């Protein structure tokens, strides 16, 4: 079909790049390691607000470039009723602070600091701001949750787990 | 320096310990495991983890020469063999994801030296020490608390 108006429907097949195969089925080759990861995940999310938890997961996965984790957590977050806007703005949260609560912003800042340790430590002001919004036990859970998503990111990226196949709630 | 907090949910602590223990066991090379763990802790600047694992490495008989030159392992070919070098390159790549992915040549070189099961456990070990690094640096747990 041909047309002179690019806005009308054109039936063309878009050719995407082929999907890359996974490098390693790590959970199959290290089942006890996988079990420990699941235990960590379950323990780390206790006591944390679910919406906040998912924002933390998505932001860490963006920083660590984990396509599989982004696929999973954006779908889960959307399915749980989060707004598209808040998800899309997440990679620029510092410039779109009015989309988030002060508590969420403190959590996102801590997420970035704990995720990127290579630049040097977790700044006092970041930690102290988080400590203003989270009481001690909840803050410990937040640190655990940031740690857990960093762990999943490392497996996902290293083993090149393919994004796109996740169904919301698949691992719940 | 005092800790910011020592709070850590016991169930989280047990899961972190289980992950470390099972990954180290599956790798089946305690001396290499310590090199991996120390290198990741150097990259992540975790004083508590360095203090603890330098002590454990010495218990496992890792030489002072290897411990001293670990931060510059790429420049010390005579001190680290091919298998150790493959593991250390993977450790750095998996620890620093922010610069972009784990390069094919790094992954493939590791896969040449470790079969699938050992490689899965090696990756698990790198993840496990990255976990501890985050939990310790985040809470600023001071070094020196570990006694063998």
UniProtKB/TrEMBL annotation, chain B:
Specify the domain of life of the species encoding this protein: Bacteria
| InterPro entries from the UniProt entry | AhpD-like (IPR029032), AhpD_core (IPR004675), CMD-like (IPR003779)
Record domain Carboxymuconolactone decarboxylase-like: where: 10-92
Could you tell me which PANTHER family the record lists for this protein?
Answer: 4-CARBOXYMUCONOLACTONE DECARBOXYLASE FAMILY PROTEIN (AFU_ORTHOLOGUE AFUA_6G11590), CYTOPLASMIC PROTEIN
Q: What is this protein called?
A: Carboxymuconolactone decarboxylase family protein
């Amino acid at each position: 079909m041909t047309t002179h108006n690019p806005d009308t429907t054109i039936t063309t097949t878009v050719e995407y790049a082929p999907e890359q195969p996974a490098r390693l089925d790590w959970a199959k080759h290290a089942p006890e390691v996988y079990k420990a990861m699941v235990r960590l995940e379950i323990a780390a999310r206790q006591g944390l607000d679910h919406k906040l938890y998912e924002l933390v997961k998505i932001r860490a996965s963006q920083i660590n470039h984990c396509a599989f984790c982004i696929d999973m957590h954006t779908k889960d977050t959307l399915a749980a009723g989060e707004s598209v806007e808040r998800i899309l703005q997440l990679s620029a949260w510092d410039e779109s602070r009015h989309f988030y609560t002060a508590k969420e912003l403190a959590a996102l800042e801590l997420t970035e600091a704990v995720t990127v340790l290579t630049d040097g430590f977790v700044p006092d002001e970041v930690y102290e701001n988080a400590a203003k919004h989270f009481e001690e036990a909840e803050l410990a859970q937040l640190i655990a949750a940031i740690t857990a998503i960093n762990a999943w990111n490392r497996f996902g990226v290293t083993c090149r787990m393919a994004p796109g196949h996740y169904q919301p709630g698949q691992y719940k | 320096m005092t800790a910011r907090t020592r709070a850590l949910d016991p169930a989280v602590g047990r899961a972190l310990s289980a992950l470390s223990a099972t990954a180290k066991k599956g790798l089946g090379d305690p001396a290499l495991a310590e090199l991996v763990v120390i290198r990741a802790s150097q990259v992540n600047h975790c004083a508590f983890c360095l203090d603890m694992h330098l002590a454990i490495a010495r218990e496992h008989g890792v030489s002072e020469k290897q411990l001293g030159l670990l931060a510059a392992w790429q420049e010390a070919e005579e001190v680290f063999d091919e298998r150790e070098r493959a593991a250390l390159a993977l450790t750095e790549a998996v620890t620093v994801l922010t610069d972009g992915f784990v390069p094919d040549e790094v992954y493939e070189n590791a896969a040449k030296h470790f079969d699938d099961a050992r490689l899965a456990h090696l990756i698990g070990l790198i993840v496990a020490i990255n976990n501890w690094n985050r939990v310790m640096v985040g809470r600023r747990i001071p070094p020196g608390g570990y006694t063998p």
